[in-house]
Each structure stands twice: as C-alpha cells, then as structure tokens.
Amino acid sequence: MCHIATWSSHCLQITNLDVPQSYIIQRGDEPSEDLVLDCEFEMDEAKSKGFVLKWKHNSLQIYQWIPVTSKPVAFASFKGHIDLDYQVSDDRFQKYRALKLINPAANFTGNYSCSVQTFEENETKTGHLQVIVPEVDFNLTYTRGNNGSVVVSCGVSDIYPKPELALFIDESQTKEVVLSEEQLQGTYDVTLQHILSDDSKDAAISCQLSIPGTNYTKRREKMYHGAAVRANISTLQALLFALAAAVFSSTFRL
C-alpha cells in the first residue's frame, strides 16, 4: 500500500526495525538465546521491480537478499555467522528479511542498518546492538588494614564492555573512591575501594554494577558491624592488659 504525502507518494517504507538493545552471551554450557534482527517493511508489489534488501554492520555490508535469486547471501566476516535458511514469513517479498546471527561474539557490537530499495525508492533505518560478555566474579568485601582503617572493596572481573561501578554507604553513593581498571584479552577488571570514615558505626554497604546504554545491572549488599568490631577490639585490649599485668606480677614476685 502506498503512503501518500503532500509532496510525493511512498510505495516502500520500513515500518519497524527490531534491533535488540543488548544481547548477553552465556558462559559455560548454558545455551544462548537466538539473536534475530528484523526489518519490517511495506511495499506496493506493483512498484517492486529491482527490489533488494541489505543489512550492514557499521559501514560493512554483511547480507543481501534479492527475491528473484531466491536465497540470501552473507558477506565479509559474517560468513558462517548468519543462518541463511532462517525465514520470518512465507510472503515472497518478506521471507528472508530478518537476520539470524549464529554464535554471536563481542565484536558483533555495533550499528546494524537495514535498507530496502527498488528502482524507484530506497529507505534505510539503523539500530544499535550491544553484545555483553557477563562477568566471572562480582564481589563486595571489607577488610581492616595494617593502620587499623576499614577498606571496602567492590570488584568485577572478565566482563565486556567496560562496566560502571557505584559504591553506596547507607544508601548514599560515595564519590570518595579509588578506581582501578585493567583490560585483558578484550575483557575488563574493575575495582572500587573506599575507606570508611567512621568504622565504629554499623553501615549498610552496597555496590551496583551496570553497563551504560543497556538494562544490564546487578547489585551486591553487605552489612558492616562496626559496634561488634569495636567491642572485639575493646575485649582484645582488656585481655592484653590483663596478660601484661599477670606477667608483670609474676616477674615482681621472682
């Protein structure tokens, strides 16, 4: 069906480009979900002469389908990573419009553009896909240093892309942190450290992990018992004092 505008008629239009915001690669033996990108369009078949559908990853063409040749073709580094038998419809002009990616990798991240064209018209739409390699570890700990201060540490390892970490003390985000980042073989290790300003008080500690531009987020929580630490220190000091007094008394009697 042609869409009539005030200045021209449009017989070819992309009505919906479905590119997922993000895709998570499963680690271990867990099967990954199918990754399908779809390009829904409307076209007046009377104006379909010269029809061709193409997909690009960033600026590189990776897929082309011309209905008169029946089967689609994959290009470049995506050869072997596109299911060329995948059909989204039985309609002869819609059958192979979608892109089903096989064994997605981190470098599949990028802009995906679908273009549909005839001899008379051409239309393109673009969406961004972020591939996520989930972390191996995400930990929140606290330790007492040699100088007696309590250091809170939040760390994530082997994740892609580079995440953001935020540390909260009693639900208030603290900016007084030391950040360390390291990239190894394409994934990231990120750590935040913070010294508690008052280690004698109880505190609810939490750390939030997120990947910008996606809905990927996780949180770790831990309770710091400052009163118990203070009591233990007082008890230890009392024991040391008693032991020292006993040793002194024994020495004096000798």
UniProtKB/TrEMBL annotation:
InterPro entries: Ig-like_dom, Ig-like_dom_sf, Ig-like_fold. The chain crosses the membrane at residues 227-248. Keywords: Membrane, Transmembrane, Transmembrane helix. It comes from the Eukaryota. Coiled coil: none annotated. PROSITE patterns: IG_LIKE. Signal peptide: none annotated. Residues 20-130 form the Ig-like domain. PANTHER family: BEAT PROTEIN, GH04238P-RELATED. This is AAEL004957-PA.
